[in-house]
Amino acid sequence: MNKQFRSTMAPDHPLITVLVALLVLAGMVLLAIRPSDEADPPADERPASSAEEEAPPPAEGEPDGLTVVDAADVVGAGEAELAHDGGVPVSVTYPVIPNAEPLTDFLERELGREAHAFEAANPGAISFEAEWNLTAAGDGLVGVRMTRVETDSEGAREGYTTYWYDTATAEPHPSTALIAGQEELEELNALVRETAGNGDGDSADPGVIHPISSLYDSMGFNPDGDLVVEFDAGQVASAAKGRMHAVIDAERAGALLSELGARVRDAATVGVEGFEIPAPPQVAADGAADGGGDGPAVGELDPVDEGVDCSDPDTKCVALTYDDGPGGRTPELLDVLAEHGARATFFVTGYPVLEHPHTVRRAYAEGHELANHTLGHPDLAGLSTDGVRSDLDTVQALVYRETGYTMDLMRPPYGSTDEGVASVAEDMGLAQILWSVDTLDWKDRNASLVRDRVLGGASDGAIILMHDIHGTTIDASRAVIEGLDARGYTMVTVSQLLGTTAPGEVYVDGVPDAPEKDAREDA
Ligand code: ZN
Questions:
Q1: Distance (Å, whole) CA 363 – CA 366
Q2: Tens digit of pLDDT for each residue in 37-91?
């Protein structure tokens, strides 16, 4: 037995050798680890088991899309349906999250406006549908992405808008608030122009992509933290190509982000579990819920240049106004205006806007003023007030959908207006703008005459009437703008020339204290 035992346990037995070797190795490992217990563990061993338990789940989503957050991971999240009276069928839902009432109210307002604008802008409107999903919920931020389907006589198109909500300030923000400023949005626009496509090899048309809020209304981050910019079907390429998007890598995009944008990125790159907003919002008394901040929002362009003061006696201002367009050659006029740093006002008519939407977008992006010159150019004084309202409302909606801009000015065709038109204009927040210099360009169709009448009629405060649908007026534009430049005029928008205007009131020029001001309704 003993011998057998001894024999079995003999140190030269292969099994014993292995056991001894293992014990020795274990001792070495223990010896090796012991000092580490007293100092910091090596960096690559640090996260190991404890961090795995604490780490949030990874963010979900595709590289070319915005992060997707399951609403079930947001405590108490539900939804509401937009109320809509009459007109085309509207089916819109939006999220309701406990303690985020300002977000709910904001979404209800924005979506109601979108639905109305779709209906007003589309004579062939058939239906408007929209659904929501969340693209961030964490770090005091909520991202809501709306996907809408607009159906009209030409088919169905999908579009996207993404809103951001800061739970600490109770402020909703548009997507452009993720970007630090207008210059950064311009930089982003340049990157997007280079890369935007639909992932199937179809590229967007760079010439129609401008740094304005209506185009950059759906931005967010993919799970890796890259900035994703997405465009509606038909917005920057033919509608058949569908959704267009650009992905700007995290490092490049990082330099363009606002503080909010950087927070949003961080929130969008981690998974969500049991997110909740702990307390009702403390809304600031000054009504910060509109997005707040100083000056115009990123991507919203002001037709008034703060650097120009028309009330300064040393500054001679004139307002060039172009009616009935845009026309096919309006881009040439925009080129000349840009070359000379001159601004103009375009009194656009509905059907040309439908025909040249990208020209409207460009004019806005380049700082010109857009103003309402009716849908079908009727004599408004002969219409019912409902007829006037519906006509003007269509053009307001068309321009709003293209640019995000709500126009402040209108010009009645033929200068024909009356009490009824004035009351509708007042109601809609539109001042009525006539003119003090009539070039009669539509009648003569002669470029030299247009130039002579502009230069002969120009004076400080003048509003000059032209039509950019006539080739001869476009032909005259260089001589007109260079001539005014040489005579020391600053070419400004009507809103810059007039300053604050009163809705409904009639203006013919920007001459201070002119006795005939507001009285020439027969122009
Ligand atoms: Zn006209």
A1: 5
A2: 344 444 444 444 444 556 778 999 999 999 999 999 999 999 999 998 878 999 9
Residue 310 resides in a domain: no
CA 261 to centroid of ligand 1, rounded, Å: 44
Q: Which of 356, 373, 467, 470 is catalytic?
A: 467
Between the CA of 325 and the centroid of ligand 1 the distance, in Å, is 9
| CATH number, position 490 | 3.20.20.370
Pair of tokens at residue 88 = 């085309």
| Strands 219-221 vs 171-174: parallel, antiparallel or unpaired | unpaired
User: For 324, left (φ over 0), alpha (ψ -120 to 50), or beta?
Assistant: left
Q: Among 43-52, 265-274, 328-337, 458-467, which stretch is predicted with the lowest mean pLDDT?
A: 43-52
pLDDT confidence of residue 283: 62
Is residue 467 among the annotated active site residues? yes
323 is catalytic: yes
CB contact set of 183 (below 8 Å; sequence gap of 6+): none
Give residue 467 CA to ligand 1 midpoint distance, Å.
8
Supply the pTM of this predicted model.
0.85
Which region holds residue 414: left if phi is over 0, alpha if psi is between -120 and 50, else beta? left
Among residues 226, 323, 324, 408, which one is catalytic? Answer: 323
Q: How far is the CA of 363 from the centre of ligand 1 (A)?
A: 18
**408 and 477 belong to one structural domain:** yes
Distance (Å) from CA 453 to ligand 1 centroid: 18
Q: Which residues face 164 on adjacent strands?
A: 143, 173
- Write the CB contacts of 282 (distance below 8 Å, at least 6 apart in sequence): 170
| Domain extent for 468 | 316-507
